[in-house]
Amino acid sequence: MDTTNPSSPPMLWSLAWQLLGKAAESGDGALATPSISTVASLQVARPRVVVLRKADDQNCVLTCYTDRRSVKVDHLNKGSEFSWLGWDREASVQFVGGGPTTWASEAEHRKIFAQLPKHSRKAYATVSPPGSPLPDAGTGLPSRWEDMDEAETDYALANFGILKTRLRWAEVLKLDREGNTRLAANRSDGDEWSFQYIVP
Ligand SMILES: Cc1cc2nc3c(=O)[nH]c(=O)nc-3n(C[C@H](O)[C@H](O)[C@H](O)COP(=O)(O)O)c2cc1C
Questions:
Q1: Ligand 1 geometric centre to CA of 48 (Å)
Q2: pLDDT band at residue 190 under the 50/70/90 scheme
Q3: Hey, which of 17, 101, 167, 180 would disulfide with 57, CB 3.0 to 4.6 Å?
Q4: For residue 142, what pLDDT is reported?
């Protein structure tokens, strides 16, 4: 069935965004912690799990937070896109999609960081960048972290990054005993999505 440029998006598309939105808001279910892959070379894709912070169904933008010093950012700086992968077990829906990924505004960074309690700042507060070697198993946080009050952890703002992927392609796969269905979506040329059901 060819659904290219329908007047309204296919139901599977609406369902996927409903699930993504719910996952981002509630933090519940596997779709709330999707994986993101980047590439540094044509041969090696590097996946990692992140927390889905926002799923903007109007603009089809997915948001996560990260440490600006992490490998994924290095990959972005080298031209990689983000490819997201998530699975909602209850709904039997897999979502994959990707596109160019950019930073939120400086003002948004400041606003969101200011709302983070001390324990949530840990991920951005390590002394050395994520992935740096340690002499022993450890958190990488400053040795007096436990004694620091929240204001003293403000330095982590410099490492705190909000990344937004404006999807330019996506696929939704719905598993069903009666028969699986798979929808491909594309908007490489602009804002308008085209949809195409494909063989699962
Ligand atoms: C459940 C879970 C949630 C995570 N959430 C995030 C996240 O929101 N942002 C992030 O940068 N890393 C998150 N991580 C850690 C990443 O998976 C990864 O180890 C880290 O970002 C370093 O990745 P990189 O070196 O490939 O950039 C999470 C890991 C787990 C297991």
A1: 6
A2: confident
A3: 17
A4: 97
